[in-house]
Amino acid sequence: MLREWRLNLKLNLKRRPGGAPVYVQIAHGLVAEIRRGRLIAGEVLPGSREMAEELGVNRKTVVVAYDELIAQGWLTSRGTKGTFVSAKLPEPKARPARLALDGPRSRGEGPQFSRLAPPMDVPVLFPRPGLLSLDDGTPDTRLFPAESFARAYRSAMTIAGKVGKLGYGDPRGSPNLRGAISRMLNVDRGLATTPDRVCLTRGSQMAIYLVSRIMIRNGDGVVVDDLTYPPAREAFRAAGANILRVHVDDDGTDMDSLEKTCRRHRVRLVYLTPHHHFPTTVLLNPDRRLRLLGLASQFGFTIVEDDYDHEFHFQHQPLLPLASFDPSVLYIGSMSKLLSPSLRLGYISAPEKFIERAAQEICLIDRQGDPVTEDAVAELVESGEVRRHANRVLKIYAARREKLAVMLRAELDDAVDFRLPDGGLAFWLTFATSSHLDRLEQNAPKNGLQFLPSGSFAGKEDGRRGIRVGFAGLDDAGIRDAVRRMKAAIGP
Residue 267 phi/psi, 5° resolution? Predict the structure, then answer.
């Protein structure tokens, strides 16, 4: 069995007289590396010949050291497969060794890990064995057009290799994909943009982060809905924003509440998700959209429009984005909800001055994205494959939306209230009593469920509560299973 890398073990071997036998020094050195966690249980060690060459000792010396550690239980031998760190060590691992620095260290110096920046309220669902995750509205990646993407990726990689474009490129992203997105926004969503007014990002969250970095100074007022997307709220807060909340109802953001806020505070940004409000899924109605644009002109704030899942609408033709009426709107979109979150493809359409500044900021974060992936997606957009994929999955998601509604009414009608979403990939569930929701959250883990905490969307203890349940990633069996687990968790 071969190691992927050379171990590069550094031992200060002292030949006798005055020092311990060399094989003992080797054994002690290996034990120290195991104790500090560099060599983990099951790790394969170099062969005795390779180790001897690396240390400049006789091979028999290494064999004796290995045999001694095998006898003590630190290592195990698996015959021709090699020598491995034992799965059961003879004593608990010590705390990681501290590296000695040159010169004396005064009291209190060194890494101050007790003085980290305060944590942010950004709940995240990680896959956990045995738990069914009710996500906040992500696509079914099993439907991703993998074969088409693989062909496009191979083509993009081949071309990039031939023309020498596998190095550093434009931090704004692939010109091909920026051009494709610009055309899509102009034709499909009514914007009037150009490739120079589009910047690619690693998902829509990076786009939000760039907005917070570029637009906000400490103390600036940023308006969010009283129920909103937690990572956006926390990105603004981390940039020093004074978070101002306005009410959202069945018609979207309340413009009377926004106007009152603007009269009390100096507002720099207003962040909202008007197409499918996050988390409640409601649509910002046309009258309120026009009034929002008027308030922006009156009070001089910038609108940040997060159109995270524009493609998914079931009951109506989608309204045109706010950015189609006002080119100063910072418009954020994503290919992740349409294709796959793992592609990490979002974008901002904004005035060119903002895009230039975003490019500078990207150079401080990760320099650029993945141009080959971006060119592959550009090919899928231009060939019509993305549109065909959207049409295919929309029918599947529409059926799953109906299935979840039927199951909720059949199993949880007395406990749960919801409005059938006109678009998007999730339901917003509220509860007949707070005790129903409390029992659901308390009993979810033992019933094999996990979901985002009900209080995370308001971001304060006395805020409105509910849970957001994505349906796109669940087939019929998964939907039935999810609702029945919810019912068991709520109880009688």
Answer: -100, 125
Contact 389, 464 (CB under 8 A): no
- Alpha-helix runs per DSSP H in 73-203: 146-162, 175-189
**Contact present, 428 and 421 (Cβ < 8 Å):** yes
3-state SS track over 435-477: HHHHHHHHHCHHHCEEECCCCCCCCCCCCCCCEEEECCCCCHH
DSSP 288-311: HHHHHHHHHHHHTPEEEEE-TTTT
CB atoms under 10 Å from CB of 8, counted, come to: 7
Whole-angstrom distance, CA of residue 122 vs CA of residue 344: 19
Q: How many CB atoms lie within 10 A of CB 226?
A: 18
Q: Select the CATH number that applies to the domain covering 1-98 from these four: 1.10.10.10, 3.90.550.10, 3.40.50.970, 3.90.25.10.
A: 1.10.10.10
Average model confidence (pLDDT) across the chain: 90
CATH fold of 132-143+388-490? Aspartate Aminotransferase, domain 1 (3.90.1150)
Locate the domains of the chain by residue range: 1-98, 132-143+388-490, 146-383
Backbone angles phi, psi at 303, to 5 degrees: -90, 130
Q: For residue range 332-375, what is the model confidence (pLDDT) as tens digits? A: 999 988 999 999 999 999 999 999 999 999 999 999 889 999 99
Q: How confident is the model at residue 8 (pLDDT cuts 50, 70, 90)?
A: confident
Determine the Cα–Cα distance for residues 411 and 45; give it in Å rounded to an integer. 56
